[in-house]
Amino acid sequence: MTQDQMTPPTGPEDVGDSRLRNLLIALSAAVLAVVLFFGVRGQTQSPSLTALATASVPLDTALANGQPTLLEFYADWCTSCQAMAADMAALKQQYQEVNFVMLNVDNTKWLPEISRFGVDGIPHFVFINRSGEALANAIGQQPRTIMAGDLTALAAGQALPEQQLSGQVSMFTAETQPRGSDDPRSHGGRPAGAL
Predict the structure, then answer these.
(1) Distance between CA atoms of 170 and 78, rounded to whole angstroms?
(2) Tens digit of pLDDT for each residue in 128-179?
(3) Element (H, E) at 100
(4) How sure is the predictor about 12, in pLDDT bands with cuts at 50, 70 and 90?
(5) CA proximity to 98, closest of 65, 49, 123
């Protein structure tokens, strides 16, 4: 290395070139960071249970419109439900002739349905034909191919190939009565004096 190569820039042109180069490097790094952030975020984001529930058909509409229905009992804290969210979103897109209804077991409004269908583990799926008759249950995390086979048969009005399936579940015990208070500080406890 010669003495000229080791000396820092001293002239105004050398300082300006150095600043411009540093600015371009900083801008390139910022653009790259933004692209990576949104690229990674877009690849790993799967549908949330809340988004699926919001987009689901209301129960009373599903039971009145003459289409086959898949009821899913779920909870936001249920890891098996979360694991199936992406598959359920894809199945909903594939089987648009089937009502997809999601009922949150933490909402005491659904106690009659929880009792009627004997929900004690989630996710709990109930396949209902066009006449409103429950044909089969699938309890716990299910492979997408199994769900697709049953949904194909349900949409066609045929016997479901898989019935009474059990997979990995999140245990759930329904309250027998609606809570006296929806105060989140109660942590699910009963009001004083309740048995």
Answers:
(1) 6
(2) 999 999 999 999 999 999 999 999 999 999 999 876 655 556 666 766 555 5
(3) strand 99-104
(4) low
(5) 65
In the chain, the largest separation of any two C-alpha atoms, in whole Å, equals: 91
Residues that are catalytic: 78, 81
Rounded to the nearest 5 degrees, what angle is found at the Cα of 55, between the Cα atoms of 50 and 61? Answer: 125
| Amino acid 183: pLDDT | 47
Distance in angstroms (rounded) separating the CA atoms of residues 155 and 77? 30
Element (H, E) at 125: strand 124-128
pTM, full prediction: 0.65
Query: What does the alpha-carbon distance between residue 97 and residue 137 come to, in Å, rounded to a whole number?
Result: 19
Q: Is the peptide bond before 123 cis (omega within 30 degrees of 0)?
A: yes
For residue 182, give both structure tokens. 């929806």
Query: How far apart are the C-alpha atoms of 173 and 168, rounded to whole Å?
Result: 16
Six token digits for residue 143 = 């492979």
Please, how many CA atoms are within 13 Å of residue 79, restricted to the half-sphere of its CB?
A: 3
